[in-house]
Specification:
- The structure holds three protein chains of three kinds.
- By secondary structure, chain A is mostly helical.
- Helices cover about 75% and strands about 0% of the residues of chain A.
- Chain A is built from 13 helices and no strands.
- In chain A, helix 5 crosses helix 12.
- Chain A starts with a helix and ends in a 6-residue tail after the last helix.
- Chain B is globular, with a radius of gyration of 22 Å.
- Among the domains of chain B are: about 70 residues, no CATH class; about 90 residues, no CATH class.
- Chain C has eleven helices and no strands.
- In chain C, helix 8 crosses helix 9 and helix 9 runs antiparallel to helix 11.
- The chains are: A mainly alpha, B alpha/beta, C mainly alpha.
- Chains A and C meet through helix 1, helix 6, helix 7, helix 10 and helix 11 of A and helix 5, helix 6, helix 9 and helix 11 of C.
Chain lengths: ~325, ~350, ~300
């Protein structure tokens, strides 16, 4: 077991490095001279020359990567071209807002998704199943940015029940009553797709489990529904957890569309402005942080699965 | 009735009483008649073996004794009494109380029949606690005793083992321990040794015999293996197309079968005496349970068939005090055949 | 002494002859089951109608998609002459939606198609070859899997700049890894089957084995998986345009239209919703068809 953990953690390292490489290369695939990506447009010649030296732009690519890597490891992600502030500073603030939103949406998606999926599996091929799965398909197929617009149209314009912009007073989200109303619409919007996915996955997993031979043994022992449910839950847990982790990662990394609709001051929103202002350091830094977070999350999920399923060992 | 009187008639009430059992599975496409009129009794410490090929209905019969079929698609008619309890009439709630406590079952493939993510110990203790509500500690203690009863070495460590960590034979013993958690009066075994190696098979069979004697249980065993049946059964009932076609105590049946099908089965078995001789195989294949013929189900494959066989399903004939056979031309009652047919029959018989 | 009874003969089905012709029989069975599935057939019909509508857009659209007049801007749905109203620049919505469908479908299907070809080839090779080749391909795939798909699409697209070509490139890159993964796992599963082992034992060349035994068995599931990806591609593609990264004005495309109509959300909500409804309907139909195909291919005893 210990070996598995160590191996899995060690494996993340080359992955993280490769992620870094991809982010590093992003600058190079964007059109134009790399220097224009990192220097403000009106920079004087000496500054440009200085930047060239600092970033080693006149050195061969692999060496540039190492220089960049060195800075990243020390926490220096560069400075935003638009605001001049450190990228890490901007990202860390935005990240909190995104994580709050993502966790809230994920929790909602999970609670409802497991309920729908579980009911669908228990009442298989009845109207309950069909209804639940229709909701699930709708959830998976909906363009969530459009759903956001729809919710805004209904709940902010037609029946003003919830705010539709921003995260509340102070420009950033805090877990208190003043800010909570701002969370509602974005949270519901973001949870739509994971909800559908979780419902479908849970249904499939539970049905598969219910077909296993040991379920007959459990009935044969005289276990009541509650006892059998425990067995089903524990058998389903690894798969469900995996989906949960993955979805949380997607929500954190992929929140840009919803955050744009609601002007939610998270990393997605930051990405959006970075793209529009061609603020490459900010773009690069945000992507790097989000991707590394995703890698870490995947690691946690894999380890969690190994802990829950005794068959996964060395 | 006084206790003394009750004691003096210990075997009068059968543990299991089955009358006219019919089980059908209904689906949109067709109805499958798995069991078609089965009657039998089981005395309290008796071992009955139901023998048959796959598709004969033997597993379905066994599972009927605790109604373990999917409730929606299954139609059960007839009477099933286990220790006086009416199984057919029982509600789901009553059944869940009966299963495991009064009647218990062990299955063919222990690897898939045990939950892979729970330890052996947990799977035993949860059964004990479900039926007897004792504390976790007490349940653990009893689980340990059970593992020792089924002769699993290093029982204490094995309590915390997962099914995939045990060998096939130990897994099967663990499953037996689970089934015996609350000392059932009736143990049902669905091909429990089929998935095991030959050497392990014999050990498990002997274990079952010993446990049965120790706990005083009735055992109904389902198998397609004559050798296994011969090893531990007191009585054998041979099943074909959902009906009992011959029933007799073990030795007499194996030595002198009466039904042509059973004769064929014994003729097809491999023994040292078979060396140098061709094995007889029963021609044809078992009938489709969705479309059973009107007469005897074995008629299409039978050597001794006559037109009367196809007219109606033969009734059970009592050929000896404890023997019945469902055939109008069983071994002892066949009139001599014309020479040509006799020659052909002899060529096929051992 | 152990007596062994005659070998178990399973109860035969009266329809036994079909077993000999199983390869054709299987697909015929799949086809029949799909035809019987009302929900799937309905969605296929809807998709077909949509497809025809957008292909024949130049013939059936009442107006020019680029011509608009500010005097006619934001007419509501149901205005005589403009069935679905006009957008923020006075262009007819129905026309814009029809023409927009062409780009949206193109951006949705193209990346999946390309990724299908590349991904399944790499995946089948990886699954069949095993060893270091498998490791190489799968580890490279893992790196791309380390990015959430939206992030990767936005990152690549953002770095490359706006434009349809860039969007398609970014999306293709996003869909290649999942297709590699599913191709690899399906192929590895098939490769382990007995009859493939038998083929190898008789000395058949790897290409023959892949062509004859592996491909027919893996292409089905991979294809069905790919159809499920189309809806994601469409949503993502339109999403990129929504962010300003894909299609650029004055092109008509559903995602872009959602973006430009966003500001009108407050006074003309229905109008602003229309392009999204198109995306939603297309997406749900593709998903239903994909589900139906998958259900038809799962043969249950």
């Amino acid at each position: 077991m210990i070996f598995y953990i160590v191996r899995r953690v060690l494996y993340s390292i080359p992955i993280a490095l490769s992620v870094g490489l991809v982010c590093f290369l992003l600058v190079y695939i964007s059109p134009g001279d790399p220097i224009s990506a990192i220097a403000p447009p009106d920079a004087p010649a000496e500054m440009i020359a200085q930047l060239r030296r600092d970033y080693g732009l006149d050195k061969p690519l692999p060496e540039q990567f190492l220089i960049w890597l060195g800075r990243v490891v020390q926490g220096d992600l560069g400075h935003s071209l638009a605001t001049g502030r450190s990228v890490w500073g901007e990202v860390s603030v935005a990240l909190q807002n995104t994580v709050s939103l993502a966790v809230a949406a994920c929790t909602l998606a999970f609670a409802l998704g497991m309920l729908l999926g579980g009911l669908a599996a228990a009442f298989r091929d009845t109207w309950v199943d069909r209804l639940a799965m229709t909701i699930a398909v709708a959830g998976v197929s909906v363009p969530h940015y459009w759903l956001g617009m729809l919710l805004v149209a209904v709940f902010a314009v037609t029946y003003p029940l919830a705010p539709s912009m921003g995260a509340g007073p102070g420009g950033t989200f805090v877990w208190d009553w003043a800010h909570l109303p701002f969370l509602i619409l974005p949270m519901v919007t973001l949870s739509a797709i994971p909800l559908g996915l979780v419902a479908r996955t849970v249904r499939g997993t539970v049905i598969e489990i219910l077909h296993q031979d040991f379920i007959t043994t459990l009935r044969g022992k005289g276990l009541r529904s509650g006892g059998i449910l425990l067995h089903v839950a524990k058998n389903a847990a690894p798969s469900v957890l995996a989906v949960m982790g993955l979805q949380l990662g997607y929500l954190m990394g992929g929140s840009i569309l919803v955050e744009t609709v609601f002007s939610w001051p998270g990393t997605g929103f930051l990405l959006n402005s970075a793209i529009f202002q061609r603020d490459i350091p900010l773009l690069q830094g945000t992507i790097l942080v989000l991707a590394l977070l995703f890698v870490a999350l995947n690691l946690v999920v894999d380890l969690g699965q190994a802990l829950l399923d005794p068959r996964i060992k060395r | 009735m006084s206790a003394l009187q009750a004691q003096s008639q210990p075997q009068s009430q059968p543990l299991v009483k089955v009358r006219d059992l019919n089980v059908a599975f209904v689906s949109k496409e067709a109805t499958l008649h798995a069991v078609n009129g089965v009657d039998f009794d089981l005395a309290p410490k008796e071992t009955l073996c139901i023998l048959g090929e796959s598709g004969s209905g033997k597993s379905v019969t066994l599972r009927s004794l605790m109604r373990l079929h999917p409730p929606k698609r299954t139609r059960i008619t007839g009477t099933i009494l286990v220790d006086g309890t009416d199984i057919v009439a029982a509600s789901e709630r009553e059944l869940s109380s009966i299963r495991g406590r009064l009647v218990s079952m062990i299955f063919q493939e222990p690897m898939t029949a045990l939950d892979p993510v729970f330890t052996i110990g947990k799977q035993i203790t949860e059964t004990i606690r479900r039926h007897e509500g004792v504390s976790q500690q007490e349940a653990q203690r009893r689980a340990l005793d059970l593992l020792e009863l089924v002769q699993i070495p290093s029982a204490r460590q094995r309590l915390d083992a997962y099914p995939h960590e045990l060998s096939g034979g130990l897994r099967q013993r663990a499953m037996i321990a689970v089934a015996l958690s609350v000392r059932p009066k009736l143990l049902l075994a669905d091909e429990p040794t089929t998935a095991l190696d030959a050497t392990v098979q014999i050990q498990v069979l002997l274990l079952l015999k010993r446990i049965q004697a120790e706990l005083g249980m009735g055992v109904i065993f389902v198998t397609h293996d004559l050798g296994v049946a011969g090893e531990i059964a007191d009585r054998i009932a041979v099943m074909y197309a959902g009906r009992f076609i011959e029933e007799a105590p073990t030795e007499p049946l194996l030595e002198a079968p009466e039904h042509p099908y059973v004769e064929g089965l014994l003729g097809a078995t491999v023994t040292p005496a078979s060396r140098g001789r061709r094995l007889t195989a029963i021609p044809g294949s078992p009938p489709n349970l969705r479309t059973l013929p009107e007469g005897c189900a074995f008629a299409p494959r039978c050597t001794y068939v006559v037109p009367a066989c196809r007219a109606a399903v033969p009734d059970l004939l009592a050929t000896a005090p404890e023997r019945t056979v469902r055939c109008i031309r069983p071994a002892g009652l066949r009139p001599p055949m014309p020479p040509a047919m006799a020659l052909a029959a002899e060529e096929r018989a051992p | 002494m152990t007596l062994i009874a005659a070998k178990d003969t399973p109860a035969t089905d009266t329809r036994a002859p079909e077993k000999a012709e199983r390869p054709q029989g299987y697909w015929q069975g799949v086809g029949k089951r799909v035809l019987r599935d009302k929900a799937t057939m309905f969605c296929l019909l809807v998709l077909l109608l949509m497809f025809l509508a957008i292909v024949f857009a130049p013939l059936i659209a009442p107006y020019d998609p680029y011509v608009g007049s500010m005097a006619r801007r934001l007419r509501p749905v149901g205005t005589p002459g403009y069935l679905l109203g006009t957008d923020e620049l006075g262009r007819d919505m129905l026309t814009r939606l029809l023409y927009g469908g062409r780009l949206s479908w193109f951006i949705g299907i193209m990346p999946v198609a390309i990724a299908f070809v590349i991904g399944s080839s790499l995946g089948v090779i990886a699954g069949f070859a095993g060893g270091w080749l498998n490791m190489l391909i799968m580890r490279a795939t893992d790196v791309f899997y380390a990015f959430p798909s939206v992030l990767l699409a936005v990152a690549v697209s953002g770095a490359l700049g706006p434009g349809i070509f860039n969007a398609i490139l970014a999306l293709t890159l996003v869909f290649i890894p999942p297709l590699i993964r599913i191709s690899e796992s399906t192929t590895a599963g098939v490769r382990a089957l007995d009859y493939v082992e038998a083929a190898r034992a008789t000395g058949a060349s790897p290409f023959t084995i892949i062509r004859v035994h592996v491909l027919p068995n893996v292409m089905g599931p991979i294809f069905v998986y790919a159809t499920g990806l189309i809806s994601v591609a469409m949503i993502l593609g339109a999403g990129l345009s929504f962010l300003g990264l894909g299609t650029r004005p004055p092109e008509a495309e559903w995602g872009l239209m959602l973006n430009t109509l966003r500001t009108s959300l407050y006074n003309k909500p229905l109008l602003a919703m229309l392009p999204g409804i198109c995306i939603f309907v297309t997406s749900i139909c593709f998903n239903m068809v994909s589900d139906g195909l998958r259900g038809a291919m799962e043969v249950k005893n």
